[in-house]
Amino acid sequence: MTHPLTPAGAAQGTAPRTDLWKPVLLRSAVSLGFGAVTIFWATPSVEAMGWAGGLYLLSIGAITLWGIPATGFGRDSAAGKLLSASGSVLAGAGFAVLLLHSDLLFGVIAALGLGVAGALELACGIRNRGRHVLARDWITSGLISLGTAVILPFFISLGAHALLGVAGGGAIILGVLWVLSGLTLRHDSRSTAAKP
How confident is the model at residue 58, as a pLDDT? Predict the structure, then answer.
């Protein structure tokens, strides 16, 4: 999915730093960890669903915000604003889900958070296609988040286990995407550092 660190025709100032792999791999680890919890948790309570889902969304939002400087975008650039908004929406949804424990609220708030953040990430990827190493990954991640957001409300009536299963399934797919991207970036950064 990822392209070389410095694609041809990259706009000045958009080439990512060689430490871009760190927030990408951290995001994948959190997503895969949450996904694993949802797979092996047979009977989660509504409160446990709120805590697990809230911490996941809050963590992903915080990692997105923390990783913006590594992308090479300034926070005032168009792409930086899209990523800031995406991270803020996820963090806000996570905080709300942490506080409000109900199947309906989890389904609605998590779906809204994932949907809006996914749309923002998709827009960032489309705007930077061919100019940034993560553009295709943002497009794919945005589509996966939007898909999860669309499906999640249909499982509200089935309870905490089903809601966590849907959210965890999306998280696992995202985790695999981001781990492949992060490992590619790590490899490319080592190759770039090794060159004289």
Answer: 97
